[in-house]
Amino acid sequence: MSRSAGFLSICGASLAPLLVVGLALAAEPDASGATSKPLDEGALVQYALSHNLELRAARFQQGVADAAVTRAGTFENPVARAEWLHTQSPADYGFGLGVEWTPPQPGVFGARQDAARFSAGAVRHDLQERAADLEASVRHACAELRTLDAELVLAERAVTTRWSLAEAVARRVERGAATRIDLSLVRVSLARAEQQRDELSLTREARRGQLTVSLGLPASQGLNLGPPPSDLLAANGPTATTSFAHDHTELTRQALAQRPTLHADGERARAADRTVSAERAKRWPWLSLGARYRHHDQSTYSNDVTLGLEVTLPVFNHNSAGVAAAEAEQQRQRALLLAHRAEVERDVELLSWERERRARIADHYAQTIEPVLREHRELVVRALSGMDLDLTALLAAEDMVAQSSIEYLRARLAERQTEISLARALGRYGQGAVLETQ
To answer: How do residues 180-237 score in pLDDT, each as one tens digit?
Structure first.
């Protein structure tokens, strides 16, 4: 068999099982003998929304905002005053009692209440946005871990194949049918395969640690993930994709209606409007009420009752600075709302376009590469059993098979991650978050 013919024969037959391993991963029992359950992405999301430490800390912002609403609806406390009259002459002493109170100013009191309520609403939507970010992060991590698990199985298969090949070549060297150069070549390939497997294992453990932090698990508690689904193609392929409307206009409408960040911007814009109203109302004069009682035996009127009224006159200060600052904040919030709205529309358009094309890429891999991969293992086994092989061509084919299999898995991963990003842009995540402090 010529080198080119051997290479084509191996490539045409040996590409299957490595991807099949990535696409059909059987559950393996753990050290205790019990079979691990498959990774439940939804359960992990719910756990993270309830136990993530940063999200739990952020929930206390809602308590602060609610307290601000209560404070905005509270009247000013009256001021009481007590007086001791004529202290220089004990024989002519007297005393006085008084109270002063500033009633709420019309246009200011109600506007502050409204602004506080709108700000509290913005905080609630901000918490939902943070919860959505957390959910998307957990789903991204789960998808990546599934792919890394499948890649590890592929790497293990590659190591096993090279061990078998090394043993076969070693036997041929003993019989004089092969050279030690051939054996060295196989051993180098084996060492590279083991190195790639170890690096994948290290990457998986690092991603697992990051997911543990996102879930809010303590440092002493590990995360025991089950094996990948038995059929990775069914799990990450079209049968498991999130449903989206094909009309970009409908997707944009959904995003504008559901995204918490846009609702938060709207609440802040309304709060800024009410703050402007309050600052403008402060331009007008307002009053304070006072009452006083004095008792003095030496006075013509020993019991004196006085009622007073104080009016603030806006002569030197028309609250121009306060109004200008409030109007500037109003314009800033309106500009942010428009900017975030445009960003959401752009994200939805780009992600929906990217999702469609990544699905096509993954489907193309499945239709063109997968059939060849399914045939590859049989040819490798046949070549090893009959030792009818071109060693260089076989190793090159094995490397190409492993790389093609990983590329397929990563194409499915990219498709899934784009779906997650699109669902995040549409505002579908974070809806089940517990916003109350615990």
So the answer is: 888 888 888 889 889 999 999 999 989 888 888 888 887 777 676 666 555 444 444 4
- 60 alpha carbon, distance to own chain's centre: 19
* 437 within domain boundaries: no
Give the strand pairing for 94-101 and 286-296: antiparallel
**Closest C-alpha among 71, 131, 108, 76 to residue 281:** 108
The 10 Å Cβ neighbour count of residue 369 is 19
- Least Cα distance to 238 among 28, 90, 424, 415 occurs for 415
Residue 435 lies in a domain: no
- Residue at 227: amino acid letter: P
CA distance 386 to 369: 26
Tokens of 397: 């084919």
Exposure letters 84-114 (e unless 16+ CB within 10 A, then b): eeeeeeeeeebebebeeebeebebbbbbbbb
Instruction: Kindly state the tokens that stand for 290.
Output: 């006072």
Q: pLDDT tens for residues 129-168? A: 999 999 999 999 999 998 998 889 888 888 988 888 888 7
Nearest to 137 by CA among 36, 201, 206, 212: 212
- Give the tokens for residue 47: 């756990």
Phi, psi of 293 (to 5 degrees): -125, 130
Quote the DSSP letter at residue 220.
T
Tokens read off for 83: 């007086």
What DSSP character marks residue 103? P
Q: Provide the token pair at 261.
A: 């960040």
The parent domain of residue 249 ranges over: 3-135+228-425
**Considering the domain boundaries, does residue 217 fall inside one?**
no
**CATH value at residue 19:** 1.20.1600.10
pTM: 0.77
Helices (H), 176-296: 180-215, 232-236, 248-258, 260-281
Q: Are the beta carbons of 226 and 27 closer than 8 angstroms?
A: yes
Q: Alpha-carbon distance 404 to 371, whole Å?
A: 12
Q: How many Å apart are CA 400 and CA 404, to the nearest integer?
A: 6
Query: What 3-state class would DSSP assign to 96?
Result: strand
